[in-house]
Amino acid sequence: MPEIGLNHFLIVSALLFSAGIGVVISRKNAIAVLCGVELILNAAALNFVAFNRYSTPDARLDGQIFTIFIIILAAAEAAVALAILLNLFQQTNTVDVDEADTMKE
Amino acid sequence: MGNDFSQTQDLISRGLAGFIPELVLSALVCVLLLADLFIRGVKPRTTAWIATIGLVLAGATLWPRLAASGEIFGWMQGGTQQGLLVTDRFAWFFQMFCLATALATLPMALDHAAFRARRMGEYHALVVAATLGMFMMAGAVNLLIAWLGIEFASMASYLATAFDKRDRRGSEGGIKYVIYGSVASGVMLYGLSLIYGMTGSLHYGAIAQQLQVSGASDLGLMTAALLVFGGFAYKMAAFPMHFWCPDVYEGAPTPFTAYLSVASKAAGFAVFVRFIAAFTTGEGPSFVAFGSVPFDASFGWPTLIAAAAALSMTVGNLAALWQTNVKRMLAWSSVAQAGYLLMAVAVYAAGRGRPSGGDLGPLIFYFIAYFFMNLGAFHVVTVIASRTGAQHVEDFNGLGRRAPWMAFGLTVCLLSLLGVPPTGGFTGKLQLLQTAVENHLVWLAVLAGINTAISAFYYFKLIRCMYLHENQAGLVTTGTTNAVLLALLVLPVLVLGLAFSPFIELSRSFGF
Amino acid sequence: MPDTIKIALLIVVLPLAAWVLGFAHAAFRRRLPACQDWISTVAVGGSMALSLWLFFTKVLPGGGMAAPEVWSCRWFAIGSGANAFILNFDVMVDNLTILMNCVVTIVAFLVHVYSRSYMHDEDRYPRFFLHLSLFTFSMLGLLVTSNLMMLFIFWELVGVCSYFLIGFFFLKKSAGDASKKAFVVNRIGDAFFMAGIFMIGGILSKQWPGEGVLSFQRIWESIALLGQGTGPWIGHETEVALAGVFIFMGCVTKSAQFPLHVWLPDAMEGPTPVSALIHAATMVAAGVYMVARMFPLMAGKGYTSGEFFDSPALWVIAITGGITALMSGTIALVQSDLKKGLAYSTCSQLGYMVMALGVGSMGAGLFHLFTHAFFKACLFLGSGSVIHAVHSQEMKDMGGLKKKMPLTYATFLVSCLAIAGTPLFSGFLSKEAVLGQAAAFGAHHQGVLGWIPFALAAATAFLTAFYMFRLLFLTFHGKPGNQHKFDHAHESPFAMSMPLVVLAILAVIAGGIALPGGLDLGTGHWFQDRVNDKVLVQQAMPESAAFKDMQAHMVHLHEPAHGANAAIASFHEHAHHVHAPVMYMSLAAVIIGIGGAWLLFVRRRHIDLVGGIPPLARYREVLRNLYYVDWFYCQRVVPTGKDIADLAKAFDKHVVDAIVNAVARGGAHVAWFAGRVDAIVVDGAVNGSGASMMALGRFCRGFVNGRIQDYVKYTVWGLGLLLIWAVLAH
Amino acid sequence: MDINMSTVMFFAFALLAVFPAFMVLFAKDIVRVAFWLLASLSGVAGLYIIMGADFLGLTQVLVYIGGILVLILFGIMMTSKDPLLKRARHVERSVVTGIVTGALVFAALAAVILGIGFESGKGRADGGATTTALGEALLTDYILPFEVVSVLLLFVLCGAAHVARRRKEGAHA
After folding, report:
1. Is the dihedral of CA B379, B380, B381, B387 positive or negative?
2. CA distances from B270 to B136, B275, B358, B448, C708 (A)
3. What is the pLDDT of residues B252-295, one digit of tens each?
4. How far apart are CA B344 and CA B435, in angstroms?
5. Is the pLDDT of residue A85 over 80?
6. Is C723 at the interface with chain A, CB within 8 A?
7. Does the distance separating the beta carbons of D101 and C713 come in below 8 Å?
8. CA–CA separation, C588 vs C597, rounded Å?
9. Domain count of the fold of chain D
10. Per-residue pLDDT at C20
11. Do B3 and D140 count as a contact with CB atoms less than 8 A apart?
């Protein structure tokens, strides 16, 4: 079994990223779509930590700092998205993103 | 690291002193939010005045920074200066630009029918917050700050888009915006992480240095470039990240659409240009990573940007042909304008390293013109929509008779967007085309010319409706404030078209 | 500022003042002044008087103006130092400018007078004059400026005015469509024109950094330098040719040359006075004027030495002009609409002028432009008079009007004789000059190819006489086609017939300005002494060092004895040789043409030409369908675009199925798709149709279907495609 | 074959991160989606800890699992008429599109990652606890984004509250 290295983590993150893209494209429920977005953000965050661990030239923690901000922004993003979604739900009684397509003309 | 606490305090006090405009804006956000919370029945006009005063104050404190240059809020690392933000004339211009946009859209918001007697303080707070984010975007020299600025502005924009709670289209536009924006941000983050992985730094200067010293994988940089470009293109509303644009523009309250189409795009270009500047050197090969390969023999930033420019303008103009909703039409038009502007960036990227290249003047001049012509167009659309409920092109029938000055202003702005002399849009486009040809992007210039021809269709459609089609409805009264704002927006369009030499010189001086 | 310049600028500014007056009134009072017609007419009358004064004091006496008056001031600069791009406000007045000013102001003035009667009952009557004033201003501005960029700006302005005026009856759908078509087709040429300008400016600004480089003088000087093997164009010979062709593309659209002539016949939807002023006499000639000013550029390297007859740009010009002349002439044979017939005749004559420039004779081309303006304006105004009388444009409703409208008939006849090239009329001299030059060109080339322009021109000369008299006979001779309309027909009022008479007189005597030197092409041709390329260039740059050198080498086209250069000498010898046969031939063409028309349409009273000449029957459909050019644009290109859009829709809808079934059906789909892409790319190159763009627009917009998840999907695919492209490009 | 502890832990956490991520794509009802996401994020937290980013691992658990997921569950409860409603049986076409696109994205990214061959010799080897270092960095070099984010959270909270507030007060307009 090979030594665990950078590429292992990167492959895991690529898997998370593609799963997230798949979720965003295919789930109909807006909340599930948001879950997909979280997966994408986590993939990027994982990358930052992995690079920080394995390939930065000095002992700084830039990558981890970046990840902290990603987590904070993800929380804010979820709050914003859910707030807008709740309002949309009050108006249309659905959270199916496919049905939010009145604007196309 | 290794600062002890007293050093830290010192740094904070010294550093924050350089950030007075940002602090003013932050305070303004808080004041506006508090005003809505604690003053019962606060009038929209009151909060608008608070916002106006705050923005003017921020502008006044920003002014001295015109002389400052290159101060980075940063630290030493490995013998090089690293940091987060830079203050130079380029940043100053775009920061002032976004402030001015916020200021100019204030009266529009007051006029917006759906906003009357609402909690306007929160809306203004969101606009100011978005402006604060754009301040960061304009000065960012660090991947973290660039991304954070984009997110900051985006968050405020999502909320402002969905601000009118009774408007279903607002919520729909908001949810689309937030989903699309989050994906774009995720994609960009992934690209940023690759850059970080290849260079080990978040600071532009350090990244460029690292790339020059030890190079990096072409494949990796190409992928990272594409993914990161996705995030920037989303902010600029350029191909291939333009999809959100029509829906969000239609759904958002019109004053905010105006703000979005001008300030947000400008900030996107600012952050992108600075990023590009770090990633293209001044010595021939413009994509550092491609070492000895000259840029036109390989894929690089200029090629990527030129392709995106070509596709943006073509897609935007073609799609706009079908649009009957005025706001959507202007949305597609703004996609096309992003294409023209990207042309300037492509020229800039291609021209770095040539004696005649690397000039950001045309881009900045076009933005000055764009500020007036696009805001002017949106101003008229807002005013007319709030008075008559006009949404579609046909609703503008006979406007030439019903509101002659408004119609005239809109006509001038549309002609300028189209690029007809003697308007600022013409001068701006002329410079873009000229520099494109000088830098051997003749095909792009010809394509832009053809695109201008295509765009004539839909701009003229609106003009024709206003002047040649009859509508028996009575006169539209517009009010003094609106007339003054209209004059302030439209006259410069003509000035920029007639006496532009000083402005051209001025815009050149804002480059770096 | 020299006096001449002051007067020339005054000529330009007067109509502008009329426009500004009306516009200001409209802006503040919300309606145009009721007396806008008077304001505009007086303004253009003033311009005409000043133009004529310049003509009689400057051009007529002596050998005309010895040197042009030039004046310029800085308009703006982009950039600074060596990279600066400077645009000057250049004004130049020479013989050609004054002559063209006279043409424009005379025709414009007469059209103003005519319109006061013709348009009087229309809605928006004052606005019509507002447009006319703006147009006159732009056209005059185009003539006095000597800077390519300024010229382009005025060029656009006249285009916009034309757009407004074609669509003046915008409630009629066909008028709206026609104006849109004219606008879009013209933008194609403009895009090329602009590219050509930038190519020139980009290179010249390196030679003369920090100076205004797009002035005519600079361009001529750079070509002169090229002839001596120095200057900015060395190593860029291909670009000279390419820039020439690009700039010529502007002329192709503005002067309605094949294959972008399709807008001009449709432009006849505009009011008839507009057709006379803009789409017959002045604006459409702007393309010819512009090419004439740029003649040295088109001629390229060999210009100085006179060995420019092989210049690729000139060949393109000559062949395009010839094809246009012949093709439009044949289409004119079968038109049943009086104005459309005249429109195709205009195309044909414009082709004639362009061809004359292409065979190297700027003087002949401009001379024809000059004479053509008067008789064509007269023909159009005459047709307006007829239409006014019978309220129809169809010739089947006309016939026998000779007795009812004697004055109109007489002027129409004079103009027909002139355009056909009958001796004693102006058209004879100019047409014969063109033919003579084309023949000399052929003889000089000593090959079959060289005779192509002449062959096209000669055939056209015959056709011109034939179809013009067909129009005349069908309208004024024979029996009334519609008795009711005939009974109500009457001669037009004085305000309309007076311009006709003036123009008819000019159609006779305009050629007279060529007379003092005799008819001979070789020696002392009045017009060509004042207006030809060598004179133009020599006069224009007396200061320049390059000019001094060039003068030493310069061979005067019209003084063969002077000719140190064998090529020029031989050309002149040829010109002398062919001169007499050409004259006889053109006379024969006139006689046969008029005679044939008389036999067919007076003796045997055929309305439909095809019935008269059996061999033509098989081409009947071709001609009736205007050589399928419009058909090609509208029927082929547009549906292809729509197919692509449908395909895209289907592609989008069934993409998953497609992946599943790809193996089975992929091949066929790919082949079909490739065929379609080929069709759109190849056809798209000449695509002038708005509808096709609409189809493409629907394609682009089809992606934005309101569903956010699809947006994300397309975005990811878009980025993926870019990545693939990047990897491949790398 | 030498199987050491860290290898086993990596694979355990990687599986915990990746498998639930795909179940988010396939899960039949929205509540399950949320819980699969929880599992996946815990896996990521584990991976952080393996890489010596202890503070991040903890933050991931606290903020994501304690905050964001609760938020999402609230969202589900407020919007779903029947949160356990199963998705239609047949595989929707869009899911196929999602899978295909996701697979292509993964193929491209994997090819790039393996093709680049990142240097991995350097980096921050086991440097002990990171909390102090992170705190110092946040209060010195990164003080600016730190402060900025606080403003962001403030206006996001107020704005979100405004947008999500029930509409009965809309009548006062």
Report:
1. positive
2. 10, 9, 15, 22, 27
3. 998 999 999 999 999 999 999 988 887 775 443 333 333 333 33
4. 8
5. yes
6. no
7. yes
8. 14
9. 1
10. 87
11. yes
On whether the CB atoms of residues C509 and C428 are closer than 8 A, the answer is no
SS3 state of residue B140: strand
Name the residue with tokens 């011109």.
C464
Residue A44: its chain B contacts at CB < 8 A?
186, 189-190, 192-193
- pLDDT recorded at residue B321: 82
d(CA C321, CA C352): 6
Query: Nearest CA to D47 among B232, C17, A13?
Result: A13
- Judged against a pLDDT cut of 50, whether residue C520 lies above it is answered with no
Does D122 contact B74 at a Cβ distance shorter than 8 Å?
no
In this structure, is residue D21 part of a structural domain?
Answer: yes
B148–D142 CB contact, under 8 Å: no
Positive or negative CA dihedral for C335, C337, C341, C346?
Answer: negative
User: Which of B8, B159, B160 comes nearest D160 by C-beta?
Assistant: B159
Tell me what ipTM this predicted complex has. Answer: 0.84
pTM here?
0.65
Q: Is D19 contained in some domain?
A: yes
List C-alpha distances in Å: C432 to B369, B496, C361, D8, D141.
53, 51, 12, 99, 87
Beta pairing partners, B142: B203
Nearest neighbour of A103 by CB, restricted to C706, C712, C716: C706
Distance CA B60, CA C728 (A): 51
Higher pLDDT, A77 or C619: A77
Residue D11 lies inside a defined structural domain of this protein: yes
User: Among all chains, which residue has been given the structure tokens 């919370």?
Assistant: B37
pLDDT value of position B164: 85
Residue B305 neighbours by CB under 8 Å, 6+ apart: B276, B342, B345, B346, B349
Report, as ranges of residue numbers, the positions in chain B whose pLDDT lies below 70.
1-17, 40, 69-81, 113-118, 214-217, 281-299, 352-358
- Residue A22's nearest CA partner among C709, C164, B1 is C709
Q: What residues of chain D lie within 8 A of the CB of B194, using their CB?
A: 112
Helix/strand/coil for C234: coil
Query: How many B/C residue pairs have CB atoms within 8 Å?
Result: 154
Encode pLDDT of D86-121 as tens digits.
555 444 556 788 888 899 899 888 888 888 777 666
How many CB atoms are located within 10 Å of the residue C619 CB? 15
Say yes or no for a CB contact (<8 Å) between D93 and C656. yes
Instruction: Reduce the DSSP state of residue A6 to 3 states and report it.
Output: helix
Cis status of the peptide bond prior to B240, with omega within 30 of 0:
yes
Residues D109 and B222: beta-carbon distance below 8 Å: no
Q: Which of C653, C641, C621 is nearest to C700 (CA)?
A: C641
Q: Are strands C69-78 and C85-93 parallel, antiparallel or unpaired?
A: antiparallel
CATH label of the domain that carries residue D43: 1.20.120.1200
Domain architecture of chain A: domains with CATH: 6-93 (1.10.287.3510)
Q: D100 burial class (0-12, 13-18, 19+ CB within 10 angstroms)?
A: middle
Q: In the structure, what pLDDT confidence band is assigned to residue C272 with cuts at 50, 70 and 90?
A: confident
Is residue D134 assigned to a domain? no
Residue C494: pLDDT band (50, 70, 90) is confident
Tokens encoding D1: 């074959």
N- to C-terminal Cα separation, chain B: 31
Q: Which two structure tokens, joined as six digits, stand for B219?
A: 């494949």
| Chain segment B378-421, per-residue pLDDT in tens | 999 988 888 888 888 888 888 887 888 888 899 899 989 988 87
Place of tokens 């295919």: A26
Output DSSP code: residue C394: B
Q: How far is it, in rounded angstroms, from Cα C254 to Cα C433? A: 24
Closest residue to C716, CB basis, from D94, D96, D101: D101
Range of the domain at D23: 5-114
